[in-house]
Design brief:
This protein is an alpha/beta fold and 355 residues long. It has 13 helices and 10 strands. The strands form 2 sheets. It has an 8-stranded parallel beta barrel, surrounded by 6 helices. Strands 7-8 form a two-stranded antiparallel ribbon.
Length: 355
């Protein structure tokens, strides 16, 4: 699976009584599917995955997958503290036709979670996962970074395709890119313009091309049947292949351009959930080798991304979603909503970043 461009880790909407608001989840996924984003992450950190029980997790994965556009890469956040629980969710995601799974490092038994233990965890998951695995390092939440030597070794696994690096450090992104540069290459299917091809896209095309029934294949008027010509079959999806190595995605909007320069193939950005166009513009300018424009676009979101995601976290992202035409609502308790001063600050920095 090709992982390039910007991905939005969607929020999980709740009713005031904290039940999941599935209609608003559908609304957000549908609207984000209309953007130029490469894909969506369902139940990452921004989606409050740790606050959902297993039944809720499966329901959110199902509704998001049923709503997302076929051409969007879908990543399922499935990290759990045990190998068994993580694999069970990987199987669920595969049944719902996700493209890959995002797996954070376990962190509760931190003193015992040394390098060999993490290697065992991720290898065991990757060995049994029916979907490709994207590692997820987010030390600000887990208080434990996946060691560089562990990432390097895991990059050799045939079912581990990359890492989401959410340390916020460009140097760390660069170090991972350098350390994994000799990882085995994989042949992936892409479109003729080198964009990702998803399993859902291929299935939809196969169903469309297989539904044609020629008029001559129907009964004739002589035996009482009415000959009705079906619509002609849709054109087959034209694809090609491409070689990719270990793919590194940054989790920091504030230094997206610098991370791309350091070798990242793309980004999973909480800020893209409330400001997808502004984040996408940075990537597009960088992809077109327009350094000046990409720097200008990066500077445009610098204060807003810091205030919304770093200063206020999940509650800030959700309020920015409300302000920018998506549904945010409140975070699940014990997280508190943004107060009046915070709301005014978010509105100030988001005033020029409307999507």
């Amino acid at each position: 699976m090709l992982l390039e461009g910007v991905f939005a880790p969607i929020t999980t909407p709740f009713y005031p009584d904290e039940r999941i608001y599935f209609k608003k989840l559908e609304f957000n996924v549908s609207r984000l599917s209309l953007t130029a984003l490469s894909g969506l992450v369902v139940l990452g950190s921004t989606g409050e995955a740790v606050a959902l029980d297993d039944a809720e997790t499966r329901d959110v994965l199902r509704v998001a997958a049923e709503t997302a556009a076929d051409e969007k890469v879908l990543l399922a956040g499935i990290g759990r503290e045990s190998v068994k629980a993580t694999i069970e969710l990987a199987e669920t995601a595969a049944g719902l036709e996700y493209d890959a799974v995002l797996v954070r490092n376990p962190c509760y038994y931190r003193p015992q979670l040394d390098g060999p233990t993490l290697l065992h965890y991720f290898r065991s998951v990757a060995d049994r996962s029916p979907l490709p695995v994207l590692l997820y390092s987010i030390p600000k939440f887990t208080a434990a970074e996946i060691p560089l030597e562990v990432v390097d070794e895991l990059a050799q696994h045939p079912n581990i395709i990359g890492l989401k690096e959410s340390s916020g450090s460009v140097e760390r992104v660069r170090d991972v890119v350098v350390a994994t540069r000799l990882a085995p290459k994989r042949t992936v299917t892409v479109t003729t313009i080198f964009e990702a091809v998803t399993g859902r896209m291929l299935k939809q095309k196969a169903e469309a091309t297989g539904s044609f029934i020629a008029a001559e294949g129907l009964g004739s008027a002589a035996n009482g049947a009415v000959a009705v010509a079906a619509a002609p079959p849709a054109a087959a999806l034209k694809t090609r292949t491409r070689e990719v190595g270990f793919q590194v995605l940054t989790g920091s909007a504030s230094n997206l351009k610098e991370s791309l320069d350091a070798g990242a193939s793309g980004a999973i950005l909480g800020f893209a959930t409330c400001a997808p166009q502004a984040c996408q513009e940075i990537y597009t300018a960088w992809k077109e080798h327009d350094d000046q424009l990409s720097l200008e676009k990066q500077a445009r979101i610098a204060e807003a991304s810091k205030v919304v995601t770093s200063d206020f976290g999940i509650a800030g992202i959700k309020y920015a979603c409300d302000f920018n035409g998506y549904y945010g609502g409140k975070a699940r308790s014990p997280l508190l909503p943004v107060d009046a001063t915070g709301r005014a600050n978010i509105e100030r920095v988001m005033a020029r970043i409307r999507n």
